[in-house]
Amino acid sequence: MKLKVVMKSTLSIFFLSIFLMFSGLLYAQEKWNLNFRPAVNFATQDVGDAEIKTGFGFEFTVGYKIVRPLTAYVGWGWNQFTAEESFAGINADIEETGYVFGLQFNLPVKSSKMHYWVSGGGIYNHIETENSSGDLKFNTDHKIGFQIAAGLKFVIAETWRLSPDVRYRSLSTTIKSENIDLELSYLSFGIGLSKAF
User: Fold this and answer.
1) N or C terminus: which one in the chain shows less Cβ crowding within 10 Å?
2) How far apart are the first and last CA of the chain?
3) Residues in Cβ contact with 152 at an 8 Å cutoff, skipping those fewer than 6 apart
4) Stated pTM of the model
C-alpha cells in the first residue's frame, strides 16, 4: 500500500515538474495567448423568414505568434439571437455554434502600450433553432463561413491585454429536412481579455 502511495506521489511530482518547466518556457517566450471575448451582435439581415433581435455570445481562442506582427488563432464560439416569429415558431432562439480560425496582423504604436490589429479567417459553424419551450426544432450541418475584424489592444498588466473590437461574420447553410436556406450575417461588438504566455 505504501509503495502505491509513493509511486503516485512520485508520478504526481514528475508530471507537475514537467508542467511547470513547460509553463516557464511558454511564459519566457510569450508566443501563446488565451483570449475570452463576450460580445453583442446585430444582425444585418433576416434569417429565413425570421426578423431576429439583438443577440449576444462569447468566444474562446488560442493564438500563436508566428512572427512578431502575425498571430494564428483557433477557437470555439457560441452566439444566440431571438425572433418573435420564425420558421421555428413563436419566440424562437437561433443559435450559431462552432469553430473559428484565422490570422491576426498586429500594428504596434511606438512609445505606447496600445496596438491596432486586423484579422481575417474562417468559421466552421452550424445553426440550431429552439422553440419557446427550449425544444430543438431544426439543426443544420456545419458549413464554412468567414469573418473579418479590427480592433485595439491595450496592455493592462505585464501579460494581460484588453481588446475592444468590431467583427463582421457571415454563414450560409441549409435545413435539409425543410429545404430552408439560411444566411446569418451580423456585426459583433466585443471586448476580449487575453493572457500572453
Assistant:
1) N
2) 40
3) 114, 115, 116, 117, 163, 164, 165
4) 0.81
